[in-house]
Design a protein that fits this description.
Distance between the termini: 45 Å
Strand content: 15-25%
Largest sheet: 4 strands, mixed
Radius of gyration: 22 Å
Strand order of the largest sheet: 5-6-7-8
Organism: Nocardioides cavernae
Number of helices: 8
Order of helices and strands: EEEEHHHHHEEEHEHH
Protein name: DUF559 domain-containing protein
Length: 241
Amino acid sequence: MTRDRAGGRSDSRTIHLLVERDRRITPPAGVTIERVADHETWVQDHRRPPRATFDFAVLKTAGDLDVAEAIGLLSDAVHQGLTTAERLVRTIDRLPRLRRRALLREVLADVATSAMSVLEHRYLRDVERAHRLPVGERQVRQDTVSGVVRRDVRHRPERLLIELDGAFGHRDSVDRWSDLQRDIDAVLDDHLTLRPGWAQVLEPCRLAGIVGVVLGRRGWQGRPAACGPTCTLDSGAGGRT
């Protein structure tokens, strides 16, 4: 797990040196100073040379990336068993000046508690309502051939399901089989399922364009609208025929 993982944006030749917050040092060329409180808690003294804890390093790197790359980096860290979402949340709480702090904490806290409310709220607010898509039914109880399930979002007239996938890092084979079975059950009931996750919901204009195209292909007569002057709404998923 290095800064190179994110496409080489950071110069790998730069050394980031952690020092106590009130210590004054003039760094030589090629050295960037990172000032922290409780310096000893952020350093692995048993390593040679001593180095920052993994959670500190990966969060500082994520803070320098764009949103999609940051989520990808943290997801890789969790997936590889190098840390957990819970540990990263606790570390963020100790880093009040971390870039993108609020967003990273929101995503990680959502994952750590297995609560999908934040992701669902963002989808409703930033994708559906902001782009004037039809607002689907929420948490719909549905009888399927495999039993009773709850669907995150259902567009009944268009027979479209939106399952908001908040999974982060490793997902075991049981989870994947369960998702596949839910999608198969939907197909048997003549429903199509889309599974956007955090990375997609955090690009709401692009996602709205895709959902709008699918809804249109399945009978919706409207069109998504731009959410504002800088909206990048793009019905680039094939357009309507």
